[in-house]
Amino acid sequence: MKKVGVLLLVTIGFLFTSNLPVKIFQSTNTELKDNIVVAQFSNSGYDTVKGQEPSYTYPEFYRGIYLTVSSANNFQKLQELVAKAKTANINTMVLDVQSARFVKCMVPETHVQFCKDNGIHPIARIVVFPDGLRKYPVPESYIDDRLSIAEDACRNGFKEIQFDYIRFHDSGSTRHLTHSQRYKYIEDILTRARNRVKKYNVRIAADVFGRIPLNNDDIIGQKIESLDKVADIICPMAYPSHYTWSKKFYSDPYYAVHETSIQARLRSKNAMIVTYIQAFKMKMGNIPFEKYILDQLRAVYDSGVKGYIMWNARQDYDIPLAVVKGFYPGRVSKKEKPDSMIID
User: Fold this and answer.
1) Per-residue pLDDT averaged across 258-278, rounded?
2) What does the alpha-carbon distance between residue 276 and residue 64 come to, in Å, rounded to a whole number?
């Protein structure tokens, strides 16, 4: 025990002399494993042991925006977006972390920590098949590259990995595969990803086309019940402008987001639903941009899902954030009750 006590004091002394911020908590138990001091802390939020990092608090309700890798990797741009987001009660940012040239996370740990320090939950977005899977089978090296990016993102501090374009292409280039085989293949990739990053204790999310919650079966290999087995979060991309096959969905942003979200929620037993909504000007008809966004926000809350992420590839969030800011009466209730919002 004397050796343990000395080592603990030396460790604390090292932390004080480093440039890292430190908080002091009362230790209730300390043990020595593999020459590393592992302490259990009381009333500190540090509830994991055996060398794992401190516990992490996820948002009860995701209120997010999407950032390109350029925005996420440019610290000045990131600072500007975080500052704007905070004024609108945004608590989540989905950050692109990959580049076509490198098999690693392009967003440094300091940027991830900056988001956390500002009350923003950062999510690492990884595109699996940029244009949808056209050729099958897929080289093992290709899948391993994507999983390597995910693991690197975890090392940089991300606590949630979101896989996008994890689907087959709409064409019949892989028509020899049955729907069941397609679902199983997508499930297996997410299962491998979960096992690969298991030691980091992170959430796994999967993005799906907006039509998936509305379809029983789909050629692209995405199915709510299938993904519900392997993902912590499912994110339907409910952009009204993309529902060109239905006049009602296409012309009514509230209806498109509400029906997509509620069907996804009703069909999932385990995964949370966080809906992507349209924060860009495209095929809106005569609906003013502000109302277009407001209708989608109201739909998210009315559907009872666990949050939303606004998508704008141009990173032009001034109007969307202004709408979100006006949507709340100055503060957000912990339970995110619809009656706590200004919706007029």
Assistant:
1) 98
2) 9
Q: What is the pTM of this model?
A: 0.82
Cα–Cα nearest to 111, from 146, 175, 151, 158: 158
Q: Is 226 helix (H, G, I), strand (E, B) or coil?
A: helix
**4 has pLDDT over 60:** no
List, in sequence order, every residue forming a beta bridge with 209; answer none if it has no partner: 237
**pLDDT value at residue 173:** 85
pLDDT tens-digit series, residues 113-137: 999 999 999 999 999 999 999 999 9
Give CA–CA dist 65/274, Å, rounded: 12
pLDDT over threshold 60, residue 158:
yes
Of 125, 87, 320, 143, residue with least CA distance to 203: 125
Whether 336 and 329 have beta carbons less than 8 Å apart is answered as no
Cα 162 to chain centroid distance, Å, stands at: 5
Sequential DSSP letters for 276-287: EEE-S-SS-TTS
62-340: which CATH number, 3.10.20.30, 3.30.160.20, 3.20.20.80, 3.30.70.3270? 3.20.20.80
Query: 264 φ, ψ to 5°?
Result: -65, -40
The average pLDDT across 172-196 equals: 96
Where along the chain do its domains lie? 2-41, 62-340
Ordered DSSP codes for 271-312: SEE-EEEE-S-SS-TTS-HHHHHHHHHHHHHHHT-SEEEEE-
